[in-house]
Write a structure and sequence with these properties.
Layout lengths: L2 H37 L2 H32 L3 H32 L7 H27 L2 H8 L1 H18 L6 H33 L8 E7 L5 H12 L4 E7 L7 H9 L16 H4 L4 E4 L16 E4 L12 H27 L5
Parallel strand pairs: 1-2, 1-3, 3-4
Length: 361
């Protein structure tokens, strides 16, 4: 190994050591903040808040080391990707440190400590988020893209846990003041955001190792209508046909109706084939709905279908007037359904462009 290569590897090793030490400090701060919250230890909470200054200083040191490495070694290919990823991961580490401070600040201002239910939920969410964070850091330092990809999957579980604990917090709401309710929501949100930053670190790992950039997000969308025989199935078919790579689509009805053969035939003439569609009723509970990023009602308010919209889901309501045209003559009925498909296609297109931008399929 040449002198230049030895110096490069030495500098790279020092950068990784700094990142490892910083990640350990951040995780310790997060652990301390949660302990302070659950135990009512204000001294520990304030020590965590003040300790963030040291974390910020170590963040700045890592940033300087990365830029110095680039300036001295003029890296290319893998080393340049690694430095770019390290700088981005450093930002994620700083933010996790900030979440620890938020939890500690909320802790010292609580009027009432968490009861058994809230304590259990905090421990559960903190445990899942911290585990994902530690695995993400380990994958990054080791340059293990496969481990990073496996760790990213954990984010879905953390999100489901967050939705569950949020629902429990609402149910326990009468036991706390408004101020404490918002404080606990801030705590839960901070813990959930830890998993988001862990996922960012995993994505940087994959980029550093393979050069692959973050894949565009695939959105899960649910269309709702009265009987799942017309509007919802059309929207599902149009979305799947026009935006196959941008989303996963499903339609359900308030109840399951019966497909009208003449309507199916007319729709086929306008390019929508529902011959194999089997109407299905909405029988999913809140836990099942959390998997959808967007819930769209094509007939009436979304809340007329579901008791509550999951925290991470967005609810939209589209209106198309009279959908069924049984009394119209043949040609007019054909034109009516063609116009209906065009109107739905416009709404679907607008939604997907909003979600994915002009890169939508």
């Amino acid at each position: 190994m040449s002198h230049y290569e030895e110096r490069l590897e030495r500098d790279l090793s020092q950068i990784k050591q700094q990142a490892t030490m910083l990640a350990k400090r951040v995780d310790e701060a997060l652990s301390a903040a949660v302990r302070a919250l659950l135990s009512g230890d204000d001294k520990l909470a304030y020590a965590t808040i003040l300790g963030d200054q040291r974390i910020n200083a170590e963040n700045r040191k890592l940033d300087r080391m990365c830029h110095a490495f680039i300036g001295v070694h003029l890296p290319s290919a893998g080393h340049l990707r690694l430095m770019t990823a390290m700088i981005h991961a450093n930002v994620a580490l700083e933010r996790v440190g900030d979440y620890a401070v938020t939890i500690a600040r909320e802790s010292v201002h609580l009027a009432k400590r968490p009861d058994a239910v809230i304590k259990r939920e905090v421990e559960l969410l903190a445990g899942e988020s911290r585990q994902m964070f530690k695995q993400a850091v380990c994958a990054f330092i080791d340059g293990n893209a496969e481990k990073a990809k496996a760790t990213m999957i954990m984010a879905d579980q953390v999100e489901r846990t967050f939705d569950a604990v949020f629902a429990d917090l609402v149910n326990e709401g009468e036991k706390f003041s408004i101020e404490d309710l918002f404080a606990y929501l801030g705590v839960f949100n901070s813990l959930e955001r830890v998993s988001d930053q862990a996922k960012n670190i995993c994505e940087e790992t994959v980029f550093a190792v393979t050069g692959q950039t973050k894949a565009a997000k695939v959105f899960r969308i649910l269309f709702l209508d009265d009987d799942n025989t017309l509007l919802g199935p059309i929207a599902e078919a149009v979305a799947r046909k026009n935006f196959p790579e941008s989303g996963e689509y499903r339609s359900l009805g308030r109840q399951a109706g019966a497909m009208a053969p003449e309507v199916v035939s007319l729709l086929q003439e306008t390019g929508i084939d529902l011959a194999r569609h089997q109407p299905k009723a909405l029988e999913t509970g809140h836990h099942d709905l959390v998997d959808f990023h967007v819930i769209v009602s094509l007939q009436g308010p979304v809340r007329s279908y579901v008791d509550s919209v999951p925290f991470h889901s967005s609810a939209l309501e589209w209106s198309f007037g009279g959908a069924v045209a049984a009394d119209l003559p043949g040609d007019q009925r054909r034109e009516h359904y063609a116009a209906l498909i065009r109107d739905i296609a416009v709404q679907v297109s607008n939604l997907m462009i909003t979600l994915r931008g002009e890169e939508a399929d």
